[in-house]
Amino acid sequence: MTLTQSLITIAFLIATSAFFSMAEIALAASRRLRLRQMLEEGDRRAEGVMHVQSQPGEYFTVTQIGLNAVAILGGVVGEGALSPYLTDMAALWLPQRQAQTVGFLLSFVTVTALFILFADLLPKRVSMAEPEALAVRLLRPMLWCIVVLKPLVWLFNLLANAVVRLLRLPAVRDERITSDDILAITEDGTRAGVLALREQQVIANVMDMNSRTVPSAMTQRDRIAYFLRDDPDHIIRARIAEEPYSTYPVCDGDIDHVIGYVDAKDLFQRVLNNQPLSLKDGSLIRRVLIVPDKLTLAEVLDQFQQVREDFAVILNEYSLVVGVVTLNDVMSTVMGDLVSPDADEEQIVRRDANSWLIDGITPIDDVLHALQLDELPHDEEYATLAGFLMVMLRRVPRRTDSVDWGGYKFEVIDVDSYRIDQVLVTRLASESPPVPVPVPPVTENPVAPSA
């Protein structure tokens, strides 16, 4: 075989190896979401790729047979084609024995480098850039190869399946998409500029609804505006003027005996008709939805849809009212700063790069998000920042009390009748600040404290 014929043969083997490398990586890297989109757009080849992905055994067997066979042939042809010429060149400066060794090494390195560059690195980079487009183009040639090499494919598949069963290895690709997968995709889309940061935050908040419990979005007990059933006309009017909200719980004697709720529109209708405001006859009182405080936001949203209500009272295991939640509260949690009120109502205020001023009743999930922490200790025992401080101190916190944890100092700044109003959170000097991530402002729910 002449030098020209040998070089042509090496080039053909490199091209063949590149074909199998591209086919292997294109199938492995193809995203099913993108393939489904291509199928919906009319490319029927995408369906074939998805079918092969579900049972890739024969496909990958062919690629490995091709890659290994070509590599062996490339070494044989390359050594025989280039060694004599490289040996003659080395003999100009070296003895014959040393020249043969140098010629062989140079031939081996040259052929190996060509295969690494043109049959491995470049094809795989191209395949990773456009895996779906290449997978649909290479599918039919690969199916032909499977047919031609059927006996070898059957033999190697039989042996591979036996080894898989012996070692109890997974043999079927898991195509389930988890919430973590979706979040990873949206984060990649945000970094690539496909999704806006706010859009990515909304998606993350939606996925978080299955883990966040209702106390993280509710209006706390001491901030609920409510009526007593025996309240006279002038008190009801004064309450509406002072706290003009759309919905008010109605209680019998105290807040822990909720009998229903009244819609502000019904009260306004009576005022416009010059009728007295009275809750004693019960005609204005509507049946209220009662939910336990252990429900997630997703479960509360389901209950709102089932009973066609947008207001609920939250009870703890002792049948005591711990708060109220509205559909707007749930949606505000999802939408974040897209529906946030004025800045003076924020529960978390970032003072500078290393400190935050946080309301004591702020849900612990929002604190974790603002500080970019994964968890706090004993997080099953509390739902707010004030609860975290009580658990860590093992007593009711006083002003200037502090807790150091996770590279942060949590210091109580203001206490009102044993209620923690403000907490100053400072990043400790020994901790390097993480990459800043915009945090949507966490706002109080639109229900004011009772008079």
From TrEMBL:
The record ties this protein, via SUPFAM superfamilies, to: CBS-domain pair, FAD-binding/transporter-associated domain-like
Membrane-spanning segments: 6-29, 59-82, 102-122, 143-164
Question: Which superkingdom does the taxonomy of this entry point to?
Answer: Bacteria
Domain CNNM transmembrane, first and last residues per copy: 1-199
Instruction: State the name under which the record lists this protein.
Output: Polyamine export protein
Q: Does the keyword Secreted apply?
A: no
- Native species: Comamonas nitrativorans
Known role: Involved in cadaverine and putrescine tolerance in stationary phase. May facilitate the efflux of both cadaverine and putrescine from the cytoplasm, reducing potentially toxic levels under certain stress conditions.
Which Gene3D superfamilies does this chain map to?
A: 3.30.465.10, CBS-domain
**Where does it reside?**
Cell inner membrane
So what family is this one in? Belongs to the UPF0053 family. PaeA subfamily.
**Which keywords describe this protein according to UniProt?**
CBS domain, Cell inner membrane, Cell membrane, Membrane, Repeat, Transmembrane, Transmembrane helix, Transport
How would you describe this protein's topology in the membrane?
Multi-pass membrane protein
Q: Where is this region: Disordered?
A: 431-451
Report domain CBS positions: 284-345
Biased-composition ranges, Pro residues, are 433-443
